[in-house]
Amino acid sequence: MNILEIKNLVKDFGGLRAVDTLSLSIEEGQILGLIGPNGAGKSTAFNCIAGVYPPTGGDIYFAGEKINRSKPWNLCKKGLARTFQIVKPFSSKSVLYNVMVGSFVTTDKTSVAKEKALNVLRLLQFEDKKDERAGNLTIAERKRLEIARALATEPKLLLFDEVMAGLRPAEVDEMVQIIQNLRHQGITIFVIEHIMRAIMALSDRIVVIHFGKKIAEGSPQEVASDENVIKAYLGDEYVVS
Amino acid sequence: MTRQNINRFALILVGVVAFGLPLVLRSPTYLHILILLYLYAYLTSSWNLVGGFAGVLPLGHSAFIGIGAYASTILSLQYGISPWIGMIVGGILAAIVGILIGFPTFKMRGAYFALATIAFGEGIRVMVENVDNLGPLKINGPRGLQIPPTNIGFGNYMFAGKEPYYYIILVMLLGILAITYFISRSKLGYYLNAGGEEPEAAMALGVNVARAKLIAMAMSSFFTALAGTFYAQFTLYIHPKSVISLDFSFEIAFIALIGGRGSIAGPVLGALLLRPVSDFSRIYFGSTLPGLHLIIFGTVLILVMIFQPRGLQEPLTRAYNRLLDKIFGGTEQKEITHEYS
Known about the structure:
The structure holds two protein chains of two kinds. Chain A is an alpha/beta fold. Chain A has a single domain, classed as Rossmann fold, CATH 3.40.50.300. The longest helix of chain A has 16 residues. The radius of gyration of chain A is 18 Å and the shape is globular. By secondary structure, chain B is mostly helical. Helices cover about 70% and strands about 0% of the residues of chain B. In chain B, a hairpin with a 2-residue loop joins strand 1 and strand 2. In chain B, helix 2 crosses helix 11, helix 3 packs across helix 9 and helix 7 crosses helix 9. At the A-B interface, helix 2, helix 3 and helix 5 of A face helix 7 and helix 8 of B.
């Protein structure tokens, strides 16, 4: 079954078409990668799915239900969680507090929320930082906090917007490990990433967009050797013919 | 004795002193000063629900004081309804007005929100000043309403001495402190804090930020209006400039910012520090330097914002914890002050 299905999604900002008739779908339990050069419309597509922007055209289905104009908080309650490319921690609060905000989605009790948040932190091997002020974390820890918060909402589908950008190679490997663990728990993952090593290792399938349009789709190997993809990234001269 | 016991002991001690004070302190002047101190601590704690937890700066809360004062006074003067019931009516009315004001203004951020709430507060004052009769209700415009002190008694919320007022406002203050304490540790408290700090992230985590803020605004307005009734029954004379004045709104914000907004103890601390300044400067310099307390407030506020932007509760909490550390010689379960403050 397709947990997420996008049909002919269009998003215009004034005269600029950021996403142009994009169609894609994710099967339950899969990891789908979304790549494309800077400004290709990846984050815009994410924001449409997560309910931040209402789409100009097209339809988005989540678990069979049309979610075109749903609000972000309602989507989150339905099981669609996301992280932000530019991390947005609640800086003055502790790590645990941050994660608890997420775990309140499934409970009204503070003690239960705290227990759930601690479980998530344990899962991400982040428990030792639970009392740290979020504003004092390093960038790698902040990215991990983004994941922890999203995970605390007990999502079915996770949207990761460049959770590895700005990390050191060792940290990237750790993050790949984390994401693979999440998949083993049955969470479907849709990931935007610029680090090719990571996305090639993670994704079952990859969708490539350029100027808002889908230019390729397939397994990591297929996409890497696709002529259009190489053109989009490197320019016409680099295509070996 | 463990740390927790000592905290509990200190709280009980403060409570006993607060309740016992009128037995020792017979001077009506000092009782009056204390009553106003508690009143401001109460008002600031109510304000804190929005201004502290939700991270916005409402500066129009005097409107709700006015609604509470006028609602109970009109009901008791014209219809003979006990001010205790009028107090609840005023609270509900204020909550509705609070939601109506919050609906358009919560979309604004920072200074724009503050300005919009000032405008609402002042707008309501000007309206009251220019209306003598609102339908069957006699508002009496700028001349205000006087409550004749004829029916003294608990049912009429009217007393000859100051002690009953002292105990009423003390109980109200303890009540609002308990409420803010529980809210800060509840889902609503987490949602308000999250929505105030990073609304976009909060929304993505399932927080309906606008709804949380409106709930907080309704509660804050309700409790603020209760203090309006108290003020009316305490002074027995209300007029627009006295109960709906910007001075009220500003002093509440001063107390909150200096004491520490968003914390439970901040409003009490701020009131403890600022109210005596304002009262004694009025007593001793009232004729020579009127308004001296405002100059002092401004200076203190500037200094606090530069050196302790989270208010004075933070260094004091730290000092208190360090003192306990010294007594117990260890850092056993350090309190995470930033978690709830």
